[in-house]
Amino acid sequence: MSIKIRQMSRAELDKAVDWARQEGWNPGLNDAEIFWQTDPMGYLALEQNGEMVGSGSTVSYDGKFGFMGFFIVKADLRSHGLGRQLWFKRRDSLLARLDSGAAIGMDGVFNMQSFYAKGGFKFSHRNLRMQSVGRKLDFDQTLVSKFQKSDLASIESIDVRCFGFARKKFLNGWLSMPNSVSFLYKKNGQCLGFGTIRQCHSGWKIGPLFAQTEDIADQLFRALNIVALDSPLYLDIPEINSAAVALASQYKMTECFGCARMYYGKFPDLPYDEIFGVTTFELG
Question: pTM value?
């Protein structure tokens, strides 16, 4: 048996995204292209006898922060130690691409927490995927408007605050990808929050949803709902933010999935009271 861990090709990333779909993770229709643009070196394949049988992302945000995701091994090869080889290789290869002392984050399924802990990751909080159906809701159109390119600098400022690190390559692609809409909340010329919704294999998913207050998040959520009218709607909320939990409850969203946010190294100091929806479980 020939086993190799190597860089993934662009076509293989499409395959990994499809595996994620089959696992029920419901990726966006255009996620692969944006993810690749963010860091083409950030994807590893587990190869057996010339065939890709496992995948994982190891994305570096300019060396300042890393994020791991897409950890999948073909079902018939699980529990044979291959996944362990891939996972530790991913961690170590990402650390080698980061600045000294930089942390790594990940959103791992709950039943794998003990495994990730053995690799040095510590639990921070739970991110819960909430589900409902898009509906037509009123919102203040004098304050909430669609994203324009002239708003990019303002949105980058909010994003670096709530994500913790600059990610310009990712954000440029995320805000302009097909089958998506972004809204921002602006008052007196100041941008106080923004949210993006993208089409997924099932319905539409909001992420991120960053806002300075619960009322601002509510206005953005209302505007984003209309895009997913009568379709499944998903929002991944950090359980650590009680206002985000309350927002999901207010609109009768129900929990359908979840991940444990874990970190290797120093936890980022994030304003969780402003994070009402995480961007993506795969890249942070």
Answer: 0.96
